[in-house]
Amino acid sequence: MTHRILTENQKGFALLGVMIIVLLLSLLTATLLHLSGQEAVSASAVKQAAVAQQLADAAGELVVAWFHDPQSASADPRLGRFREKRHHNAQGGPSFFDVNGRSQFVGTSEYPDVTLRAEHAADDRLLNDPEVGVFRAMRHLGHVEEIKVYAPSNPGLLCTVDATIATGASSPVRQSVLLQLGALNLEPLTAAVQVTRHLGEFRQGNESLVRVHWGELRVGETLVLSHEDDIPTKSAMAVVTGQSYDETAQREDRWVEALIGGPVLVTQPAPEEVAGLPSNIHERQSPIPGIRFDQWEYEGLKRMAKRFGRYFAIDREGLLYPQGVVAPGRGLSPDEVLKSQVPGDQQGLIFIDTLDQLPPRVDNLGVLRLQAAYLEATVVMQGHVHLNSQGSGATVNVLSPPWTDRDGTAGRTPVQLRGLHLNGVLYAAGNITVAGKPKVYGAVVTGGTITGTESQGALEVWYDHDIGQGWYRGLPVVYRASGTWVAKY
After folding, report:
1. Residue 35 placed within a domain
2. What are phi and psi of 465, to 5 degrees?
3. Cα dist. 75→81, 133, 466, 469 in Å?
């Protein structure tokens, strides 16, 4: 009997133990399910937060893009304020900063210079409309609630961008970020061609070979011409075309002026009764009133190229070395570096240093042989250039400088330039030697002179008005200043 009671008690204890174990397993299972649910919620929240931050960054990049878009003003007049340079620097060129270095953006977070809010129908359409909104590519992920632009908190920078977005999830996440922008400070080139020394020699066949369209020719010393009409007359009625002067019967241009520091000499003058220089040629300008030449500072431009462009050293054979490291077998020919395949293949800022990588002197100037059939770039050569463009060049669609008709309407004429070899800037610390008849759309600057290797050579330059405003293709107008990104919430 006693044995039977003990056996039944043992069974009861075992059953109780099993029940306790089942209860514990049930509690553990419930806890795991709860934790899994919480983990899924947390993972979703983390994902939404990451998406929100990326969208807020993208909204900030919209503002950067507006600075680079010449058509932004057509979308909304307020966007034109991003690109418009409303101050002038110490040299008189257009600038985002006044002569004391203060930014044109002066607002605060409460009273910004520019505000776009999605709660306003017009702003929402500009930002988020699925057809035309600038944020439409990311519409499926979220929308921009607000963008503000106002003064920078760090001296020397351009502005603060404050962007707020909301994700498109069922439980949307809002994210707001601040970032500051700096502006690239590259001096505008305000003339088509600038020659620091003389241009041409007083020998028949060695006169100036430069032909200028749409801008100024500046020469520091003497200018020698074959005939008085080598410089076209200036006329508001001149037809705006892409034709070279060799293709036109009458040499006229709406914008050409020639500012010459010394005298203008003509080797084959017209008869006395018709002799005389056109009124747009101004000789003996030095020392009074003087001629201003646009000069790019060596060290600052070198730093700019290392950060935003490409930097090369050069040896005495004319080979180029990336990053300035001269080593046997690493040299590249200019033909490998300086070329564009088609219009639009922009090479940006290319800086080629002196032989010793120190500021230019008479004894440390290398020689760059530029032979590309077509090149889009801002080429800065701290030495001499031999320009001998090969091939027939490219056809490029450009815009003339602004002009105003009789009723006050301003416009720019679309022009097709054929046979173009360089689309951009050629800036040489030394001399430029020309072979053949290269054509340039942009600007040419030399610290020496421009000469030819043959009597039939010519350098024809159409001035790019945008360069005079400080816009250089392939270079950022503004950039994110490092260390200024802040997430508000």
Report:
1. no
2. -60, -30
3. 12, 10, 20, 21
